Amino acid sequence: MAAGTRTRELPLRWRAAELSARRTESRSAETLVLRVPGWPGHLPGQHVDVRLTAEDGYSTQRSYSVASAPDGDRVELTVQRVDDGEVSPYLADVFSPGDLVEVRGPVGGWFVWRPREQAEPVLLVAGGSGIVPLMAMVRVRTALGSRVPFRLLYSVREPADRLYAAELDRGAPGLDTTLLYTRTAPPGAGRAAGRLTPQDLVAWGWPPDFEPAVYVCGPTGFVEAAAAFLVGLGHAPERIRTERFGPTGG
């Protein structure tokens, strides 16, 4: 590009999305399988905006990470129900196959894994529903038959809160998954219940001299603590990418 030349991205537009299927992931989360004609594709780690419009014209929107690998016009979102929320209760409990919403995206270019450009080991650190964009990375790796080694540390309160449990239990070559429980650990768990610690990252993560790409996603407090632990252990800050969420009204 010549010096001084500017590029201007086209604005993202809203697209109609039809719910084609849904499945329960946990007691409080549902995966929605959307058909989005004209979907341009996405990178693992990106998200979409979802807009609901009432009959009286009132509209509201929320952002949700894409959980699926690119697959034509099919896009999967996993929605965690917020009981007093404005959007998530409708999507999790009322939204039915054949119903329509609007989506806009994909959005985001920082918190993404680019499998054709990145060959370094990958460390995924998830807290609660922060697993969603990281699961897209896992699924893309599997779909491509990538041999990039992945390690996933997934922290949840108790077994009933796990998302994608059956899929992660099946595993995949080169994917090491460690489950961390903060409140109630099941019998046979390799670790007592408790919050993420630096020792967990040493035991089940990658050492800093491997120079892994690190992706951390979850509630703000979890992400800030995990990132601080990683830097304290010697991981380069520029190799740690974070995505955080907090109360938004659902």
UniProtKB/TrEMBL annotation:
InterPro entries: Cbr1-like_FAD-bd_dom, FAD-bd_FR_type, Flavoprot_Pyr_Nucl_cyt_Rdtase, FNR_nucleotide-bd, MRET, OxRdtase_FAD/NAD-bd, Riboflavin_synthase-like_b-brl. Residues 12-113 form the FAD-binding FR-type domain. Keywords: 2Fe-2S, Iron, Iron-sulfur, Metal-binding. The keyword Zinc does not apply. Pfam families: FAD_binding_6 (PF00970), NAD_binding_1 (PF00175). It comes from the Bacteria. The keyword Lyase does not apply. Its cofactor is FAD. This is Ferredoxin reductase. The lineage of its organism: Bacteria, Bacillati, Actinomycetota, Actinomycetes, Kitasatosporales.
